[in-house]
Design brief:
mainly alpha, two-stranded antiparallel sheet, 35 helices, disordered N terminus
C-alpha cells in the first residue's frame, strides 16, 4: 500500500502528548516500543501540565513578571529597586547623591538586621533571641531629605519588621493619603503591604488592597517590583486558603500569563484541592469555562500508569467522574474537545472519546488519539495510514520550546510530574513518538527495512538495533546502510555519553548503524568489508587482528610463529571484542557498554506483555499487534551470535587461544601460559567452560611450573602481567 505523504509541515499549537511507559529503576532505560507489547501503542498519550497551560492561553494580561518571566522575590529585590526609585524621585534635586548615600546606609542596615533575625535557629528561645534584632530594627529612622512617600514607607517597614503591625499599617495608610503626585513611587508598595498586613485579620480588606495594587499599576503609578503580578498570587492565595476556590482560578491563570513561574505550581495545587474538596466545589469548576479546562488539564497531565493497579484504577474512576460532571454541566467546548477526548481515552471510556473526537475535527492531536482507537478496534491499516499522515503534522526531533507554537515532549515514565518544572532537558518530540508507533506497525506487517529506517529517523535506537541486528539479513542491512547511511558521522561522541544515548540523540545515528554493520561483518569473517564501516579508532585493531588470524592459520609458517599469531588475535578479541564483534543487544549489550543486560530480546519480542504484567489490565484491549511474527522469530534465530552466550567474544578469544596452544608441544611453558591465561578469561563467569582449559593444562603441561601450580590448587593459578606465576 502506498502511503505517500504530500502535505506540507504545519506548525500548529498542539497538545503535547507522550506515551506513558512503565520503566524499571536503573542507569538509563529509554523509552522504546518493541519490548513494550501492545501497551506501548495503546496506552494513552499524556500532556505536560505547564505546556498545556501555555497552549490553552486561557487569560491575557498587561502585567509582566519581573525580568521577563522570573520573580526574584519582594524582599530580595527591594533594596536595589528602592534605591533606583529614590534616585528617580530626586532627579535634579539639590543634594540628591548625599541623600541617596545616607538612605542606602540605613536601608541596607535594615536588610542586614532582618537577615540576622530570620537566621536565628528554631527551637526554644528563638523568640527571645529575635527580640534583640527587633529592638535594633525599631531604632532605625528615616534620613533627612527623603521625599515623604519614602520616609513614610520606610517607617512602616521598620514597624513591620519590628513586630508593630498596627504602626506599619498606619504609616502605609499615610502614604496612600498623600496627594497622587506625591506618591508616584510608593503607592503600589504601600497598597501591597497593606494587603499583606490584613491577610490574617480582614480578608475583604486584603483582597481589596491587592486589587488596588493592580489598579494603581494600570493608572501609571510605578510598579518597579512588579507587585501587580505578585498581588495576583497573594489574592488568589486568600481564596485557596479560606475559600471559595473558584475565584483563585482566574487570578492564578493571570499570574501565569504574566510570566510568573510559581503560578504553575499554584494552579496544580488549586486543581488538586478542587478535586478533593467536594461535589459542590467541583460542580462550580465544571460550570466555569476556564475552571473546567484547568481541572481537565491537570487530570490528563497527572493520569499515569502506576505500578500499583489500584492507583491506576482510581485515576480512571476519577476521570470518568469528571467527565460525568461535565456532561451534567452541559460542557461542549470545541476548544477543549482534544483534552476531553484524551481524558475519556485515559479513563477507558472509548465511546466517549470518539464522541469528543468528532467535535475536535481534524486537529492533529485529536487524530493521534483516533489512531489509537483504530488500533484498539483492530483496524491496523487505518491506524497506520493515519499515523503516516500525522508525521507531516508533527515536527520530528529538534523541536524546542523557543520555537513558536511547538515545544518538545516528555517521556516521563513513572517520574513525578514536576520534572519539566525542575528544568529537565528533553529533546524528544511528539513527531518522534508518532514515527516510532508507525515503525512498530511497519514491523508488524513485515516491512522490515522500512521499519528500521523509520525507527532510525525517529531516534529510537534500541528498536532500530533489534531490526538491524536480529531481523535483517546481513545482505539486507549492508544494502540499507550503503543506500541510507553511506557517509560516516561528522560528530564524535560527547564526553560521558553512552553509545545508546548518542544514537538516540540523532547525533551519531549513522555512526551507530554503520558500527553495528561492521561488527556483523566481522563476526561473519568479512574483515575487508567491515573496515569501511568501522569507527576510525578501531581500524588499526581490526587490521592487526585480521593479519594475526590469517598468519596463525597459514600452514606454511612455523608452528611456534602461528601459535603466537593466534594468541595475539585471541587477546585482541578478549580485550577489544565488544567494540569489534560484540552484539549491540543480547547477549553482549554493547548498547550499554556491556555493563547492563537491558535491551530488546527475542524472548521479550515473543511475549512482550510479561514485562508489563502489573499494567496489563490498563490497556483494555489485546490485539496482539506488537509481538514478533513467526517470520520475525525465524529471522531472529538465524541471525543470533555464536556462541549465544553473554560476552560471546570472550569464548571466541578463548577458543583461538586453545587453537594456539595446540600448535605447541606438551609441557611447553608457553602452552601452559596460554591455557592458564585464556581459561582465566572465563573462570569467574563460566567455571564449567573454563574447566576445559584447566583439564587441558594439567593433562598436557603437568611438568611446567604453571601446570604444577594448577595441580596443587586444583584450579588456575594467578599470573602476573608478564605471564609468570604470581608469588
Amino acid at each position: 500500500m502506498n502511503w505517500k505523504q504530500n502535505d506540507r509541515w504545519l506548525r500548529c499549537v498542539l497538545t503535547l502528548l507522550v506515551l506513558e511507559v512503565a520503566l524499571a529503576c536503573g542507569p538509563d532505560f529509554p523509552n522504546r516500543f518493541l519490548d513494550g507489547g501492545d501497551a506501548a501503542l495503546l496506552l494513552a498519550p499524556q500532556v505536560d501540565f505547564q505546556d498545556e497551560l501555555q497552549r490553552m492561553h486561557l487569560i491575557t494580561t498587561a502585567h509582566r513578571a519581573r525580568n521577563a518571566g522570573t520573580t526574584r522575590g519582594f524582599t530580595a529585590d527591594a533594596v536595589g529597586v528602592d534605591l533606583e526609585d529614590l534616585r528617580a524621585a530626586l532627579d535634579g534635586a539639590s543634594g540628591a547623591p548625599a541623600i541617596v548615600g545616607r538612605y542606602e546606609t540605613v536601608r541596607r542596615q535594615l536588610e542586614r538586621l532582618i537577615g540576622k533575625m530570620e537566621e536565628e535557629p528554631s527551637g526554644e528561645g528563638r523568640e527571645r533571641r529575635q527580640s534583640r534584632w527587633r529592638h535594633a530594627i525599631e531604632s532605625l529612622q528615616p534620613v533627612a531629605g527623603l521625599p515623604a512617600e519614602f520616609a513614610l514607607y520606610f517607617r512602616g517597614a521598620v514597624a513591620w519588621h519590628g513586630g508593630d503591625a498596627r504602626g506599619a499599617k498606619a504609616a502605609w495608610e499615610e502614604v496612600m493619603a498623600l496627594p497622587s503626585a506625591a506618591r508616584r513611587f510608593k503607592s503600589t508598595w504601600a497598597s501591597y503591604m497593606l494587603g499583606r498586613a490584613s491577610e490574617r485579620s480582614n480578608l475583604v480588606d486584603a483582597r481589596r488592597r491587592f486589587q488596588e495594587v493592580r489598579v494603581l499599576a494600570r493608572q501609571g503609578f510605578s510598579d518597579s517590583l512588579h507587585l501587580a503580578v505578585d498581588s495576583l498570587g497573594r489574592e488568589a492565595k486568600t481564596y485557596y486558603e479560606a475559600g471559595p476556590l473558584l475565584p483563585a482560578c482566574d487570578l492564578y491563570l493571570e499570574q501565569f500569563a504574566a510570566g510568573d513561574p510559581s503560578a504553575c505550581t499554584s494552579l496544580r495545587w488549586l486543581a488538586r484541592k478542587a478535586l478533593v474538596e467536594g461535589e459542590l466545589t467541583l460542580q462550580g469548576f465544571a460550570a466555569d469555562p476556564r475552571g473546567r479546562r484547568l481541572i481537565t488539564a491537570l487530570m490528563i497531565a497527572e493520569q499515569r500508569v502506576e505500578y500499583e493497579p489500584s492507583e491506576a484504577t482510581k485515576q480512571q474512576v476519577d476521570g470518568a467522574r469528571w467527565l460525568g460532571m461535565l456532561r451534567t454541566a452541559g460542557a461542549r467546548d470545541v476548544e477543549a474537545a482534544e483534552q476531553l477526548a484524551l481524558l475519556a481515552y485515559q479513563a477507558g471510556e472509548f465511546t466517549t472519546a470518539g464522541e469528543w473526537l468528532s467535535i475536535a475535527g481534524q486537529k492533529p492531536a485529536a487524530q493521534w488519539i483516533r489512531a489509537k482507537l483504530y488500533l484498539r478496534e483492530g483496524q491496523v491499516e487505518k491506524a497506520a495510514r493515519l499515523l503516516a499522515f500525522l508525521t507531516l503534522k508533527f515536527p520530528v526531533s529538534g523541536a524546542h520550546r523557543s520555537e513558536a507554537g511547538m515545544a518538545p515532549n516528555v517521556y516521563s515514565g513513572w517520574e513525578y510530574p514536576f520534572e519539566r518544572e525542575q528544568k529537565k532537558e528533553v529533546d524528544d518530540s511528539a513527531g518522534n513518538q508518532i514515527l516510532g508507533e508507525l515503525a512498530t506497525l511497519k514491523l508488524a506487517r513485515g516491512d522490515y527495512v522500512e521499519s528500521l529506517d523509520t525507527f532510525m529517523r525517529a531516534g529510537f535506537w534500541d528498536d532500530a538495533a533489534w531490526i538491524a541486528e536480529r531481523v535483517l539479513s546481513l545482505g539486507e542491512l549492508r544494502e540499507y546502510v550503503r543506500r541510507r547511511w553511506l557517509s560516516p558521522p561528522a560528530l564524535p561522541k560527547e564526553a560521558g555519553e553512552s553509545r545508546g544515548e548518542a544514537a538516540r540523540s540523532h547525533r551519531d545515528a549513522a555512526g551507530h548503524v554503520r558500527h553495528l554493520l561492521a561488527r556483523r561483518l566481522i563476526r561473519a569473517g568479512r574483515y575487508t568489508e567491515a573496515r569501511a564501516f568501522l569507527p576510525e579508532e578501531l581500524k588499526s585493531s581490526l587490521a592487526v587482528y585480521a593479519k594475526a588470524l590469517k598468519r596463525g592459520r597459514d600452514p606454511r609458517l612455523p608452528a611456534l610463529e602461528r601459535a603466537r599469531e593466534l594468541m595475539a588475535a585471541a587477546r585482541i578479541v578478549r580485550w577489544e571484542g565488544l567494540e569489534l564483534m560484540g552484539a549491540e543487544l543480547e547477549p553482549d549489550y554493547a548498547i550499554s557498554g556491556g555493563q547492563y543486560e537491558d535491551g530488546i530480546t527475542l524472548a521479550g519480542r515473543m511475549d512482550p506483555e510479561r514485562r508489563r504484567s502489573g499494567s496489563l489490565g490498563l490497556t483494555n484491549a489485546s490485539p496482539g499487534i506488537n509481538r514478533a511474527s513467526r517470520e520475525e522469530q525465524v529471522r531472529a534465530m538465524r541471525e543470533r551470535v555464536h556462541p549465544d552466550t553473554r560476552f560471546h567474544y570472550r569464548y571466541t578469544g578463548a577458543d583461538l587461544a586453545m587453537e594456539s596452544s595446540g600448535l605447541l608441544p606438551d609441557n611447553s611453558e608457553e602452552a601452559a601460559r596460554i591455557l592458564c591465561e585464556s581459561g582465566s578469561w572465563l573462570k569467574s563467569r563460566d567455571p564449567k567452560a573454563a574447566d576445559r582449559f584447566y583439564k587441558t593444562l594439567v593433562r598436557r603441561c603437568p611438568k611446567t611450573a604453571i601446570g604444577r601450580a594448577a595441580l596443587a590448587r586444583r584450579w588456575f593459578p594467578e599470573l602476573d602481567e608478564q605471564g609468570e606465576l604470581s608469588p
